[in-house]
Amino acid sequence: SNPCLPLPVLQATQCQMVKDLRACLLGQSLRVDCHYENKTSNPLTYEFSITKDNRKHVIHSTISVSENIYRSRANVTMHKNLVCLYLQSFTTSDEGVYMCELKATNDYTGNQIKNITVIKDKLEKCAGFSLLIQNTSWLLLLLLSLPLLQAVDFVSL
């Protein structure tokens, strides 16, 4: 049986799973969201890279050394279950297959990897880019976190 199948919380597996990888345009920057399911409280290391012309270029990483041309333009923010890459001054020369690779310290199941192909003309703007459509739990979280909507009790009337 697959050890990575969803299990009751008490029975958390070792699998650090990258759930989803999405990209959008934020002004002149590319934003790549790497969603993962955190099964451990161990520190998380990450690597964002791009493959173009059959070569892998590291953009931002805590695992290996990133390339100079990207390092000055890239930054990463980490939230609960989300690692976000921002690449400034995004142009068509930055098109390619972006990869998010995550590894939890002392987690021996190996690195978790997901790819996304990024084409500038096909990117949506981040403002109109919604996680909510695909994921209702995000909608619930948002509703619960917005003070304006805390009067949401009227729904049950």
TrEMBL record:
InterPro entries noted in UniProt: Ig-like_dom (IPR007110), Ig-like_dom_sf (IPR036179), Ig-like_fold (IPR013783), Ig_V-set (IPR013106), THY1 (IPR033292)
Protein location: Cell membrane
Gene Ontology CC: dendrite; external side of plasma membrane; focal adhesion; membrane raft; myelin sheath
Membrane topology recorded in Swiss-Prot or TrEMBL: Lipid-anchor; GPI-anchor
Gene3D superfamilies: Immunoglobulins
Main location: membrane
Job description of the protein: May play a role in cell-cell or cell-ligand interactions during synaptogenesis and other events in the brain.
Protein name stated in the entry: Thy-1 membrane glycoprotein
